[in-house]
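Translate sequence into structure tokens.
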Amino acid sequence: MKQKTEQWSSKLGFILSSAGAAIGLGAIWKFPYVTGMSGGGAFFLIFVLFTVLIGLPLLLAEFIIGRGSGKEAISAYKKLAPKSVSIWIGRLGVVGCFLLLSFYSVVGGWVLIYSSMSVLGRIIAPQVEYGALFETVIGTPWITIIGLFIFTLANVIVVSSGIQAGIEKANKYMMPLLFIFFLILVVRALTLDGAMEGVQFFLAPDFSNITGDSILYALGQSFFSLAVGFSCMVTYSSYLKKDVSLPQSAGTVVSLNILVSLLAGLAIFPVVFAFGYEPAEGPGLLFIVLPAIFSEIPFGSVFLALFLLLFLFATLTSSFSLYEIIVAAVTENRKARRKPTTWMIGLVIFAAAIPSALASSSLSNVLIFNQSIFDATDFLVSNMMLPIGSFLIAIFIVRKMDQALVKEEFHLANGISSNVYHIWHFLMKWIIPLTIVIVMFNTLGIW
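Result follows.
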């Protein structure tokens, strides 16, 4: 007898879990430093435009594919377009999530290490130089491996517990708390001397620093931060009931993601300029600047520990979705196989992530196209595979999937007019594929 697929218990649980998948390292860790390296306000504006005009329609497309099929990523494409090569879109997503986890888990380990050190009062302390501390953490092999191991273990424990009891339950409690502490952080950052210079850098567009690479990074960031392109949201929405509006859910997730990106910029860049840091600090920006912020706040050690613990949770909620697409694809949603499969996948991902974990220490001399293992994997996933996956999803939903089913899923449980559907369909059919091709070709130097 076929087992019934597990479902989200409520619309709120689905939205918070989808937002949790999107709001993590992409919005809080990666967005500030990529923005700092790519021109500030102009990059943020391009990112918002890409997120609304490309990321939102693509997120909705993944929702439609997932709930329309009721299957995880690989089986969804097989069911909706049997006897076609479309199944490789799902397979690309699974491989992409695996590669993404191979460096994402490393950063998750960094967050976990910083959380532990903050609880012990080892970060905000007399004569601590935050940049040197970060270099010590990522440059010490045994520290990064331990962080990676514990982060992987936490993912395995939650994901093996299932959708409602594991992923949804965690998101319902922790996501609201993350917003509260983010607001506290922003308020304090904006009251620092010199903060307005950072606000101007972040919100006043200066297109003189924008290059083809910057545009590609903005496009990749919009995919990365919304978890689209690898069919993660196909798997998540396959657990969704029919009484939920997919366009409204997608709009809520995108709005929350842009809000967090805005808060991240307002929390980081005022402090960057107030303390004399470089906005192009790179991946260590958050780990260097956050302690500087909290060191200026009464009971800063306590607030830093709480925030880092919540940041760790946001990091985990995103990695849950990456694990879930792999686990669901391997088990084909058979509940009896979930636990052993999740543990096996966790072990393989841990082993695959070790090279990236050692990219700043033992393997620092190993370069791939003049980039470290960590940076090369990040570029491959975020700036190549995610856009390709998104392009293929756009082609699939308008040219391979039954359009009557697409329209039905779009209009279920909402009063949205047909005009909105036609605009979305036009974007998916023409604008989004063309934009992705132009940006990628420009980056590759083809034109």
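Note: The chain has one domain: 11-443.
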